[in-house]
Fold:
Amino acid sequence: MSVLLANGQAADNMKYRRSSLYQLMINHREQKFADDIKEVFLQMPVSEHFNDHNLSVRVIDLNDKLDGASSDKENEDVTNWLNKNLVASRLVAKWFDRDKYTGKCDMDLVKSRGLYNASAFDKVLASRSVRGLAILEDAGEDLIGNTFVIVNDIRYIDKEKTGKGIGTSLRIAGSFLSAFSGASGGSNVGDALNSFADMSETLKGFKVKINTYLYRLDWNDDVAGLFYSTQYGTTDNGKEKEAFDKARGSYKLTYVGKQESSGSTTSFMGVKLDTPTAMVRKACQRAVDENVANLQHNYEEFRTKAPLLGIDPIRVAIGLKEGMTENSTFEVLEAVEKEDGTVKYRKVGVIKPVKSLIWDNRYMAEEEGAPNANLGFTTFKKVSGDDFYPGMLVRETN
Structure:
């Protein structure tokens, strides 16, 4: 048994096993600002605490009003779309870099994300040994089985029904600015200023509500055994290609749960009024991050790990974006490689954040001048445990 991450590993070079994430949004083409919301969603990166497992399709068009959108139960519209489009099998194919034309696969991504020694990995698999089978099971349990899908139903909250009428697209803001800068007469200037003032009020009050649905890829010993024995292609256009194509409908996603953002108005301090897309991005990014953080709180299997950057003081690059509060508690884990090549985590201690030193890492917190936005990490205090070192992992507990 050996420790997987070496003591003293450079903080900016740390590698650790992450869950993998595919994130989608539902596009309601009839709603106001649909194009703007779609544009900013496609700019949102996958969180650094996940492996990016996005597929080519990121935006799906569904009915303007989803059946049961206000319910905490599984949404049939969303689930049916995922099943109809064989998303589970596409996620599996990406794990093995499967060529859709020839069916040929490889294990490069599994080796990379699993932090396996490449040459040793190939040797034990080729030998068909007990150790080789153990590594495959380990990869399935801790890597492929931790592949998640989040589907974000993003809705603009239209205040036009109760308040003053507003423009039909945020891009109108650009034309207001152009009119203002090019106005030459007194009345033209006044009209432009009044129009710009109206748009400013609209932008300041821009808000969205997001329902986020969480799914997990089904990957167990039976599914893995069938894939490796009959569908893992080692040659071009072998019998494995046909076997996988026939079995694609048998791969499944399991619904985990749902989270709804509060829909509260986001502060647009630090965002210039002549960059309306940035305002939409900030509102959407904050709401999506809020939902992901709450899903992690509520569903243990979705919780992510992050490495200790240092121990004097104890510091980790997580903060308010992950929903951290002064009452949050984290367990410290050590990654250990067992004799059969599998990797397990053992708890070695508990830490809590220092109240005044919680990093505000929410999107654009620095631009709005938020306190602690420049910290770069959260400082923790030790509750229990000894001999922590950089590279150990932390995970929030209940």
In short: The longest strand covers residues 343-353. Residues 276-298 form the longest helix (23 residues).
